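User: quick one
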Amino acid sequence: MRQQIITKLLAGVAGLGLALGAVGAYASPESDRQELIKYYQSKYPNIKIDDYVYGALAFDEDSKAQYDAIMEFPPYEADIDAGRKLWETPFKNGKTYASCLPNGGKNIAGNYPMFDEAKGKVVTLNDAINDCRTANGEEAYKLGDKNTMGKLTAYMRTLSDGMLMNVKVQGPKAMAAYEDGKKSFFTRKGQLNFACASCHVQNAGTRLRSELISPAVGHTVHWPVFRGGDNLVMLQNRYEGCFKQVRAVPPAIGSTTMNNLEYFHSSLSNGLPMKASVFRK
Amino acid sequence: MRKLHQVAMACAISAIMLSGTALAQNAAPKKEETGKDIAFNRTKGNCLACHGMPTVPDAESTGLYGPPLIAMSARFPDKAKLRAQIWDATAFNPASSMIPFGKHGVLTEEEIDKVTDFVYGL
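Assistant: Done. Structure below.
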């Protein structure tokens, strides 16, 4: 997405498909990703794409040094251990998550969210975990709950560390879900009138008060995060926070709107390595 | 209805844009707010989130989304134009990330008048 196109999107004067697309057809997710990277690189030629996984830290050496120090002895180890227990404890029927998820649950996080043709909708990794639970006679976890889904995924996602994000958008229904997520990302909302893109595209690398803003590319590879070292935050909980920040009513965690947003947002990080879980300010 | 809406929204506030002074403010007996108070208050103008004010010593940890506010009466000889910028920045730049304070009812008309006076003096 070139500068003018992004500006047009935020001004609401261009239809999304039209602004981003080649003539006649939808833009492919891969070309959206490339255009965004080009946009960031033209503003910040010295920052390597691989460093986008560090978010705002990539723009500030001191904060990055602090991050590196904290990551040597993460203060949230106990939560990861608790997550490992949840992961290893068999269901009442004796089955385990590993026996239910593809590839024993290893090296799969980068495939999610995925579009499930049979269900006709986007399925996040957290949804897949809940499907596992209900298929084995357990109750689904509350999607936004830190103590259950949060801790479990804080461990489970480490089993995919190093895998490259690999979200696929294939077929017309998947494409429609992707476009819906893209629309959520670029549409202004809330009393304060921001789109996600107002901050994470237009103003990425800029300070809002004393807060440096991260680029959207690289956002989705490292969840959950531990803010302040011990406050576990899952990706959609973070979306919720950003919606509230602009005084918009957030869609429910796990709703189609949130899942489609995560689908679009995740595809922007395709090719970047997964790494769970990390420290954030 | 609009009032109620604003109160509800003020409660939903979180994080930087909107962090924490609302409660403390409500508890104290109301004294007349100045344009500067409104501009600095994170739950009202929060202009410092985006603008430096180089001539105001206590304007600290300011953001960089927008240009520094300085020499305003020279740059905006017409005060009405300055007020209009604050009321709805998107009227002048549709892609602006500045909040449409008047249009979206973030500040009242009276508050915008006060902020305009304050900013005009910078």
